[in-house]
Amino acid sequence: CLRTSSARQAKMQAQQANAKLEAYWASLRVTHASIPGAVNCLTPQAVPDFAVPKGHDHDQPDLKQALQLYLDLKGKNRPKSFEAAATRTCNYLIGVAGNKPLGDYTRSDALKFREWLVDRSLTGSSVTRNFSYLKAVFNFAVSEYALDVTNPFIGVYHDRQAGVIKRQPIPIESIKLVQAQCRQVDDDMRWLVALLSDTGMRLAEGAGLLKTDIHLDCGIPFVRIQRHPWRGLKTRSSERDVPLVGDALWAAERALRAQSDSVFAFPRYNQSTTTAANSASAALNKWLKHYVPAGCTMHSFRHSMRDRLRAVECPAEIIDQIGGWQTDGIGHSYGTGSPISVLQRQLMKIA
C-alpha cells in the first residue's frame, strides 16, 4: 500500500520503489555472480547498501542538472525560445533561492520566487509562464530520477489578471483603411502588413517566408507556412497552407515581382541567421498606430481574423486550420484537415 489517494503521488512512489528494487537485484547478481576459476575462493559479501538514498547532495540532481536533463530530452527540434525561456526561469530561481538539490526546495522558496516576480512588475500571465516552466523542469526530473519529492511550486497562488491588457481586434473599417494605405505606399513593409491582414498569420511567419513558399501558379494561390532554420514555428499546428485572397494575394504578387536577388520574400527582415521579427514588429506597429484604434497592434490582425470568420459562420475547426491554432480533442488529430478549396471559400467571404 502506498498510503495515498493521489495518482500522481502514487506514481512517483512506485517509480522510486521500483528503482530501489532494480538496484537491489542488480547488486545481488553482481555479488553472487559465477566467476570462472574462483569457485569456493570468494567469501559471500553483504549486499551493498547503495540502493538506499544517502542524502540530497549525493543522490538528487540540483536544479541546473535537472534543467540540462529537461533540455536534452525535451528540447530536441524545439525553437531556441524554448531553451531560452526554461533557462531564464531557472536562473531566476537560482538567483532567489540558490542552486540546490530538488528535494531541498521548500514552499518558502516558491513563495519568495513569486514575490520576486511580482516585485519586478511582471504581468499575471508572465508570472504564470515562469511557474509553468519551473514546474515542467522539476516534474520531469522527479519522474526521470524516480525521486520521492513533492514539487513545492505547484499550486502557488497569484493574480493571473494583474497587469494583463487584452489585445483588441482591429475593426473592419480600420482594416480597409490600412489596406488602402498599403496599396498607396506600395513598398515591402506595406506588403507584409497587407499579407497578414487577409491571412491572419503571425508576423514572424510572414516575415520569414521564402519566395518559394508563395505559390501563385496553381489553381488556388496559397502560401505554405513551414519551419525554416532562420524562423521556427510556435506549434506543430502552425505548419499549414493558407489560401491567398484579397489584399493578401495582391501583397504576395508584389513581393514575388520585386526586383531582388534574395530568396526571401521580405529580405529586409532576413539579413542575419534569424528573422528579425522584433524589428519588424517595432517598425510596423509604429506605422500602424496612425490608422487603428488605441491598443491595436500587428498581432491584432489574428484576433480580427477569428472575428471575421465567425461573422460568416465559418466552422471553428476551419478557423483553427487557417490560423494555425491548436484544436482540442483527439478526433481533430485524425486525417489531414479540410482541403484548401474549402479554406479558400471561407476566406473569400471576408476578403
What does this structure look like?
- It is built from 14 helices and three strands.
- It has helices at 7-31, 56-59, 63-74, 80-97, 107-119, 124-145, 172-185, 188-197, 203-207, 246-257, 277-288, 300-311, 316-323, 340-348, and strands at 214-215, 222-225, 240-243.
- The chain has a three-stranded antiparallel beta sheet with strand order 1-2-3.
- Helix 3 (63-74) packs across helix 6, helix 7 packs antiparallel against helix 8 and helix 8 runs antiparallel to helix 10 (246-257).
- The longest helix is centred in the N-terminal third of the chain and has 25 residues, at 7-31.
How many strands in all? 3
Strand order of the largest sheet: 1-2-3
Level of helix content?
A: 40-55%
Order of helices and strands: HHHHHHHHHEEEHHHHH
Structural class: mainly alpha
The quaternary state of the protein chains shown equals single chain
Poorly predicted spans: 38-58
Q: Tell me the overall shape.
A: elongated
